[in-house]
Specification:
The complex is a heterodimer of chains A (396) and B (262).
Chain A (H helix, E strand, L loop, with lengths): L1 E5 L7 H7 L5 E4 L2 E4 L8 H5 L5 E5 L13 E4 L2 E2 L2 E2 L2 H16 L3 E7 L3 H7 L6 E6 L8 H15 L3 E5 L4 H12 L3 E2 L4 E4 L5 E7 L4 E6 L6 E5 L16 E4 L11 E8 L11 E5 L9 H10 L3 E4 L1 H5 L20 E5 L5 H5 L6 E6 L6 H4 L2 E4 L2 H17 L1
Parallel strand pairs in A: 5-8, 5-10, 8-9, 9-16, 10-15, 11-15, 18-19, 18-20, 20-21, 21-22
Antiparallel strand pairs in A: 1-4, 2-3, 6-7, 12-13, 13-14
Helix pairs in contact in A: 5-6, 7-11
Chain B lengths: L1 E5 L2 E3 L4 E3 L6 E3 L4 E3 L1 H17 L2 E7 L5 H10 L3 E5 L9 H15 L4 E4 L11 H9 L3 E11 L3 E7 L3 E8 L2 E5 L11 H6 L5 E4 L20 E6 L8 E3 L3 H14 L4
Parallel strand pairs in B: 1-6, 1-8, 6-7, 7-13, 8-12, 9-12
Antiparallel strand pairs in B: 2-5, 3-4, 9-10, 10-11
The chains are: A alpha/beta (396), B alpha/beta (262).
Chain lengths: 396, 262
């Protein structure tokens, strides 16, 4: 049991100690320092306050035998047997982590009629594919999918589970984490592993203004979700390797209070996440009609138009075209930002792009800190001329 | 219909920095507000109540000042408010938070429907809702983009799966995490604000809960631990080009050709 104990005699200047707390969790109550419910146990008061004023008291924690948990498992994210590409990115990351601790890589797939998909997974350097092929697992439903995953965890005991932060992964991962009573870190951008098999999970916090490094030191399995296009996909090997393990689960565990009545394909939408080239319109665009310029540049480069939050909020483009933490995370081969100042929230949604080119009038715009090539200039001079040049060169 | 809506108080801004020398988190200003995504959950609840009758509880977990967002919810039309607050809940991660909330819900009544927003703007995980449902042993659906039909025993909703929409019928009791823009949230009403200014807020502390084992709450009940915080890295490679429009365009055109994009 860990707790903070205040030694009033050592506090000294109460108000000074109170000012250390970033969460306003300390109060001066009639000359005594008290900690209130806003406390996040960040322990800054222990580290930065007068020696001994606030003490962190910890009783011995029960430790677990980490050697009982082996393997890095990747959830095969799919809808109707179509595997989401984030799966291959996670398999690549899992292999990299597994090599460091000499563990196997597992894939777990649940669904109906998925034998072909499981065979295909053997081309991606996994040691074992655990396949739960059952009619009742036809569509994603939270209770049966959780039950299957729980069965897998109990039988296989993987040390870590990686899942895509997709509509399915975002529902299934927390449900499983609570079921097996373990920690889960959402939207990790960096994953590493310590020799003792502790997964080092790094994710943006406070809207990307801060990175937090998170461990799950006393629980297994360790669980993390990762957004699509954050990790590098693994290459498909022409040869197969590894094996498929067919798993059964009692059908009474597959009961659900959810009934899928219908599936309606959404209108064929273009997803900015899937585009290799993006041209992003920012606040430097003066009026809605001028978006045409940006669209034209995107078209001529074979890409799509995207935007920043203010442009979306002005109603000029739809929310699904917005890049950033409150929008989509993108990782195209080329991204050109046009009149984008580049808030941290925006940058967090695109700074993994292979080539970043920024056009902005203000030399001090933060976008130039993330851009590989920054053009300090007027977009209204550059973009139309660039379109002409590309058109001319194509005409030749 | 008994509805409970989970809400959270969040900082008004995400503008925080880490002091590079001391490693201390610097938060400028501590204005707070209701998590904007929760407004959609509350609006959904209000519309369901208008159609089906019943009552709406709002529940939050946080320091005493979080009562402010319960007052705001009252001014929008919520009937009862519950604040789960105890120093022992401090330092909770997703698992401990969701467990505490589920315990608080159990002490607050029987509910047919629990509504949550998509995620919070400070934690950004979108995980607490589904974990609460797991602790309560009820089905949950996230990404709910529309409510299609409210029956006596079940509710039919539209779940946005990015590429398609699933029309799903869920039996009560259940938890739904609704998307932004499901319904336009109403503004708080001044009349309601006056009417509810003396309305009680139930405060729940550890000793009010069914499970009072301190090991299950706060930092002690949290499997994940924040080891360190640090400022985000910026890309190392950086070239800044100055010049007139014509020069810059030519330079960019050549670069795009070199990179095989033009």
């Amino acid at each position: 049991m860990a707790k903070l104990v205040v030694n009033q005699a050592l506090v000294g200047d109460i108000d000074q100690l109170i000012s250390i707390c970033p969460f306003n969790a300390m109060e001066n109550k009639n000359g005594e320092l008290v900690i209130n419910a806003a406390c996040k146990m960040c322990k800054l008061c222990v580290k930065k306050g007068p020696q001994g004023a606030v003490e962190y008291v910890e009783e011995e924690v029960k430790t677990i035998d980490k050697s009982q948990w082996k393997g890095i498992a990747v959830y095969v994210d799919h809808v109707d047997g179509v595997i989401h590409p984030v799966t291959y990115e996670l398999i690549g990351k899992a292999r990299e982590l597994a090599l460091k601790i000499n563990h196997p890589v597992y894939a777990i797939m649940m669904g109906s009629g998925i034998s072909e998909q499981c065979q295909e997974l053997l081309h991606y350097s996994v040691d074992k594919v655990f396949a739960y092929d059952n009619k009742q697992l036809d569509r994603f439903k939270i209770e049966p999918y959780t039950a299957v995953f729980e069965d897998f965890v109990q039988n296989v005991k993987p040390t870590a589970i990686l899942m895509g932060a997709t509509p399915v992964g975002r529902q299934l991962a927390p449900r499983l984490a609570a079921r097996v009573g373990t920690g889960l870190t959402a939207d990790c951008t960096i994953l590493d592993i310590n020799e003792n098999t502790d997964l080092v999970q790094i994710r943006p916090a406070f809207g990307g203004n801060i990175m937090a490094q998170i461990l799950t030191p006393n629980h297994r399995p360790q669980m993390a979700t990762v957004r699509y296009k954050v990790m590098d996909a693994t290459e498909r090997n022409p040869e197969k390797s590894g094996e498929i393990v067919s798993c059964e689960i009692a059908s009474d565990k597959l009961h659900s209070s959810i009934e899928v009545l219908d599936i309606i394909a959404k209108e064929k939408e273009q997803f900015i996440e899937a585009s290799e080239v993006l041209v992003v319109a920012g606040r430097g665009i003066r009026k809605e009609e001028d978006l045409q310029l940006v669209t034209e540049l995107a078209d001529i480069l074979g890409g799509q138009i995207a935007c920043t939050r203010p442009v979306m909020e002005a109603g000029w483009l739809e929310a699904k075209r917005q890049v950033g933490l409150s929008g989509r995370t993108v990782r195209p081969k080329l991204i050109i930002t046009v009149g984008v100042s580049g808030s941290v929230q925006f940058a967090a949604g695109m700074n993994n792009s292979d080539q970043i080119i920024a056009i902005n009038k203000d030399e001090n715009a933060p976008i130039f800190k993330v851009a590989h090539y920054g053009l300090v200039g007027d977009l209204y001079e550059i973009v139309p001329e660039l379109i002409n040049k590309i058109k001319l060169s194509k005409a030749v | 219909m008994n509805i409970l809506v989970c809400i959270k108080q969040v900082p008004d801004s995400n503008k925080v920095e880490v002091d590079p020398v001391t490693g201390v988190l610097k938060r400028n200003g501590v204005e707070s507000k209701m998590n904007p995504y929760d407004l959609y959950a509350l609006e959904t609840a209000l519309r369901i109540k208008e159609q089906k009758g019943g009552s709406i509880h709002v529940l939050t977990m946080g320091p005493g000042q979080s009562a402010g967002i319960i007052r705001e919810a009252y001014a929008m039309g919520a009937d009862k408010g519950v604040l789960i607050s105890d120093r022992k809940f401090g330092g909770a991660d997703v698992l401990a938070t969701s467990y505490t909330i589920s315990q608080g819900i159990k002490m607050s009544g029987e509910f047919d429907l629990i509504l949550c927003g998509k995620q919070t703007t400070d934690g950004d995980t979108a995980q607490v809702g589904p974990e609460v449902a797991e602790w309560l042993g009820i089905p949950s659906v996230s990404n709910v983009s529309n409510i299609l039909e409210i029956g006596d025993k079940d509710i039919t909703v539209e779940m946005d799966m990015t590429h398609d929409l699933e029309i799903t019928k869920v039996q009560f009791p259940c938890l739904l995490a609704v998307d932004k823009d499901i319904f336009m949230p109403r503004l708080p009403s001044y009349i309601k604000k006056l009417e509810t200014k003396d309305r009680e807020i139930t405060v729940i502390t550890l000793t009010d809960l069914e499970d009072q084992d301190e090991k299950h709450y706060g930092l002690n009940g949290s499997p994940t631990q924040v080891e360190r915080i640090f400022p985000p890295e910026v890309n190392a490679h950086r070239e800044l080009w100055n010049g007139n429009g014509i020069e810059l365009t030519e330079q960019l055109f050549q670069k795009l050709k070199d990179l095989k994009f033009a």
